[in-house]
Amino acid sequence: MPTTTRRTQQERRDQAEAALLAAAAELVVEQGVRSLTLARVGERAGYSRGIVTHHFGAKQTLVERLARATQAGFVPGLDGVTPGLDRLLRLIDGYLGALSSIGVFNQAFLLLWAEAPTQPELAPIFRERDDAFRADLRDDVEAGIADGTIDPGADSGDVAVAVVGQLRGIALQRLLDPRSVDTEQLRRGVTGFWRRALSRPAAAG
Q1: Mean pLDDT of the residues in the chain
Q2: Which residue has the higher pLDDT, 37 or 4?
Q3: Is the pTM for the entire model greater than 0.85?
Q4: Distance between CA atoms of residues 127 and 112, nearest Å
Q5: Phi and psi for 150 in degrees, rounded to 5?
Q6: Is pLDDT above 80 for 39?
Q7: Cα 114 to Cα 130: distance, rounded to the nearest angstrom
Q8: How far apart, in whole angstroms, are the C-alpha atoms of residue 163 and residue 40?
Q9: Degrees (nearest 5) of the Cα angle 156, 162, 166?
Q10: Which of 64, 68, 122, 153 stands 20 to 30 A from 130 (CA)?
């Protein structure tokens, strides 16, 4: 006789929360963050408003949890890569490559990021995320200067701000008008640009 494994209460809770956050992300992509309500999220996910309230309590908490859930990142597989020019270029290439098949959570991330300057509940979350992103990029530049692959005249802070602005700007353009942004061509061009801009000049022979 076949046996069935009953899900634990925590597993059921985790499944419900994942479904609710996915529904919230879909609504943000379709109609914007201002359209989010607990009732609409519950309806989209197939749960009652009471379940949504039990998980999040209020819209602000839902938005904050969604903002954090969408920040898993565009470029997996870089954790074990040593900081430096190679890692920085891999990040740029991978970020732009991922835009060719951007998922709903990443779309929601970009839209929430664009809304953050005018949404008090979002601004601190996305400032924290951007600070961490820029810090990673600064580490790459400083490591590259130390190992001799990056021009010592490069300013790590300026490079970090420029790279984040470029990547996010391209991503938003891709979201707005996918046909106008050739991600495969861009990833070669943009990665090549930063390789040339940052590489240490060869010593004169």
Answers
A1: 89
A2: 37
A3: no
A4: 12
A5: -115, 140
A6: yes
A7: 12
A8: 37
A9: 145
A10: 153
Q: What residue has token string 């938005």?
A: 63
Query: Which has the minimum average pLDDT: 59-63, 122-126, 201-205?
Result: 201-205
Higher pLDDT: 79 or 205? It is 79
Neighbours of 187 (CB within 10 A): 20
67-114 tens-digit pLDDT: 888 876 667 668 788 999 999 999 999 999 988 888 899 899 999 999
Q: 37's torsion region: left (phi>0), alpha (psi -120 to 50) or beta? A: beta
Long-range contacts of 141-149 (CB under 8 A, 24+ apart): 141/88, 141/198, 142/83, 143/82, 143/83, 143/84, 144/83, 144/84, 144/85, 144/88, 144/198, 147/84, 148/200, 149/84, 149/85, 149/86, 149/199, 149/200
Which residues are CB-contacts of 37 (< 8 A; sequence separation ≥ 6)?
A: 59
Rounded CA-CA distance 62/45 in Å is 14
pLDDT at residue 60, as a whole number? 85
Residue 134: both structure tokens together: 């820029």
Q: Is 121 helix (H, G, I), strand (E, B) or coil?
A: coil
Q: Are 45 and 23 in contact, with CB atoms under 8 Å apart? A: yes
